[in-house]
Amino acid sequence: MKKLLVYLLCVCAIVTIGALTFDAVQTPAPVGAWPSGPNLTTPGPTGTTVPTVPTLAFEKYFIFTDKSAPAPDSWTIRLTPQEKQMFADQKAAGSYVENVLMPSLDDQVMWGSFYAESVWTTKLHGTKPVQMELQHTHDYDECINFIGSDPYNQADLGGTITIWLEDEKYTLTETSTIYIPRGMKHGPIYVDKIDRYWNSQIIGMAGQPWRNWEEEYGAVNWQEKESSTEGKYAKYIISMKPSGAAESGVVEAAGVPDAGNPGKHVFAMLNFLNGQAVPGHPEAFFFGSSWSMELQGGPHVKMEYESYHDFNEVLGLFGSDPYSTDLGAEMEAWIQGERYIMTESFLEWVPAGMKHNPQYTNYIDRPYRGFWAFNASAPRMAWEEPRN
Ligand SMILES: [Zn+2]
Questions:
Q1: Which of 76, 219, 345, 355 has the fewest C-beta atoms under 10 angstroms from its C-beta?
Q2: Could you tell me the distance, in angstroms and rounded to a whole number, from the CA of residue 364 to the centre of ligand 1?
Q3: If pLDDT is split at 50, 70 and 90, which confidence band does 10 have?
């Protein structure tokens, strides 16, 4: 999936990434030498206590759009000749999809990380479904997420996608998380219709999205192919639970107890992947996502306690406008006792053992998306600050 999304970015040329370099993320910089991010020095809200921090040594763990995108050439060389041909043929026939890059991660961006790629899928050109994948397998677990962009109707994908899992075809019109255990054939994926842009997100438990096997382009006519109707792979597609279920789809008022900050952060939990989500797959890694809606009762709501754990984590917060990097909110994140303020879409990479949080939501101007992924199926804290 990654190769494809990136390729589309290149061919559609709706994102200008020519000026980006990869140096800053490949060569570890001395402490304090990382270039200042867009908004890492904003003062805290009036009345909050901001400790003096001599250096910002952990800034590199935050990834913004400009840090995460390698030069275009380094992405397109990942496409096989067959994939290049597939996209070229469709483009020549007038059918292609536009994507806008969001902050993304792999082990070239952050040493030791797994990959987590996100784009806004914004427009479909032409009259035919656009094929986004050749069927393939890999030897690591992956999850593919299609998340609608309407914060007030979170289950609505805003269009139609067709995905094949082994010999079965599934049609998606809702926000969906698809678990792909290692070795399972998946794809092709078609974008059939886009009414409203959505977020396409792929996370895999490998540093790079390499494939063990890929079908030969043109060998199968997928549009004509008969699908098995047994529904053997339906369990791999996780939808949002009906409204009212405890685990997702519910708009909740939350925050953790914090003396002096009575406000509430109203958010909606979307689909969850974890060791219980797919019958027979206790190894499935954790993925969860949300919409943050608004703050009630005051700014600066504490969302997490300081902690560390023995698994790796990626956290992402994304604004809802595909053509802007603005988060639409202000987030305060702490790493190893350092305070960072974020007002743009970002990823945070948290290697095992690194103290991170507390995390505060300082204000919300408009709803934004959040997600978390761990290389563990049942995450537990190794240490957490005492509750107040
Ligand atoms: Zn895949």
A1: 219
A2: 35
A3: very low
The CA 189 to ligand 1 mean position distance, Å, reads: 10
CA of 237 to the centre of ligand 1 (A): 14
Task: Tell me how far the alpha carbon of residue 144 lies from the centroid of ligand 1, in angstroms.
Answer: 8
Domain-wise residue ranges, the chain: 241-384
CA 233 to ligand 1 centroid distance, Å: 15
pTM higher than the cut 0.85: no
Query: How many Å lie between the centroid of ligand 1 and the Cα of residue 204?
Result: 8
Number of DSSP helices (H) and strands (E) in the chain, helices first: 5, 25
For residue 299, give the 3-state DSSP assignment.
Answer: coil
Span from the CA of 6 to the centroid of ligand 1 (angstroms): 14
Contact 322, 328 (CB under 8 A): no
Q: How confident is the model at residue 296 (pLDDT cuts 50, 70, 90)?
A: confident
Altogether, the residues listed in the chain come to a count of 388
Q: How far apart are CA 263 and CA 258, in angstroms?
A: 9
5 touches 83 (CB < 8 A): no
- The encoded tokens of residue 97 equal 């999809």
Other beta carbons less than 10 A from residue 162's beta carbon: 19
How far apart are the C-alpha atoms of 55 and 326, rounded to whole Å? Answer: 25
| The residue type at 370 | G
pLDDT digits (tens, 9 = 90+) for 105-134: 888 888 899 999 888 999 999 999 999 989
Evaluate if residue 165 carries a pLDDT over 60. yes
Q: Calculate how far, in angstroms, residue 213's C-alpha sits from the geometric centre of ligand 1.
A: 10
- How much is the average pLDDT of 222-238? 96
